[in-house]
User: Which sequence fits this backbone?
């Protein structure tokens, strides 16, 4: 193994150092966007990968200061492409600004069907070659149907976007999010025997298998808790969340509803539970989810009003 594989900089991004350039390995620079929150942790990581030319991975939020910081990280080198893990706003709202500034195409798993269309599709297994680096697309549906991770072949390390975050689990929000797909993607990644992970939020993760096995165990424990809540007579998602997430601050419960729905849909697909939509609310327009004073880019689907029970 080369030095760039065995000794990545494991420092955790500090929100107070947003905009600073961190050289993690000879092939990877990280720039932290100034968008910290309870959903993004210290902020969104944008990576500059390669020697010359380079590529930019996840433009992040629509912020001039972030574009300026990433431009400093590029440091006059040629930019060959902009890669996008998925089109959630904290990773992709800067696409138009970055595209215009660097005058290069944006690649993602989903092109014209996306909320912020990319210029060119990047299918599973496709490879982008830049200075000293080959980046291979790895389709990892779960957090989002179109989610791509990117394998840096020289380091056998993975840029995980929101599939794996440091310090937190990710929200699985149906219909674009799917719990069975998410767990399946994690199990496939474990088999890749990766050296380390570069997450979209938080610091470098040096033990990928342990990290992902821990996430799977956590999700399986939550699923067991959901089943226990049904056994106890809770049939509405809000009531299940109140029981299962009693250890989580209540202002986060609106977000937890999505993950519980994802668990229930997985269980329904497996034939273990069934749902009965409430006819009085099924036709209601979806509402934007409010968490504290923050309005999230999630809309409450009619399934939230369904009752769930064992088959």
Assistant:
């Amino acid at each position: 193994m080369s030095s760039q594989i065995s000794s990545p900089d494991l420092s955790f991004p500090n929100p107070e150092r947003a905009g600073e350039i961190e050289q993690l390995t000879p092939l990877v620079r990280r720039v932290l966007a100034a968008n910290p929150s309870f959903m993004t942790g210290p902020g969104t990581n944008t990576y500059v990968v390669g020697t010359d030319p380079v590529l930019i991975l996840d433009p992040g939020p629509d912020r001039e200061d972030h574009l300026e910081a990433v431009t400093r990280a590029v440091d006059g080198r040629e930019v060959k492409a902009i890669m996008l893990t998925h089109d959630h706003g904290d990773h992709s709202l800067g696409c138009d600004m970055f595209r215009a500034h660097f005058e290069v195409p944006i690649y993602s798993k989903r092109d014209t069907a996306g909320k912020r269309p990319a210029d060119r599709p990047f299918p599973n297994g496709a490879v982008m070659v830049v200075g000293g680096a080959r980046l291979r697309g790895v389709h990892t549906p779960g957090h989002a149907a179109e989610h791509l991770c990117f394998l840096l072949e020289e380091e056998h390390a993975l840029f995980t976007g929101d599939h794996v975050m440091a310090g937190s689990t990710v929200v699985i929000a149906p219909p674009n999010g799917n719990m069975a797909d998410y767990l399946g993607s994690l199990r496939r990644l474990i088999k890749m025997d990766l050296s380390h992970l570069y997450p979209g939020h938080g610091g470098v993760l040096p033990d990928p298998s342990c990290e992902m096995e821990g996430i799977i165990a956590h999700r399986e424990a939550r699923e067991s808790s959901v089943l226990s809540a049904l056994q106890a007579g809770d049939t509405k998602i809000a009531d299940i969340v109140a029981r299962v997430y009693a250890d989580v601050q209540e202002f986060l419960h609106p977000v937890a509803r999505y993950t519980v729905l994802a668990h229930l849909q997985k269980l329904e697909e497996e034939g273990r539970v069934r749902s009965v939509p409430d006819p009085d609310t099924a036709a209601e327009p979806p509402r934007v989810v409010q968490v504290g004073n923050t309005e999230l880019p999630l809309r409450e689907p009619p399934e939230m009003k369904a009752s769930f029970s064992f088959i």
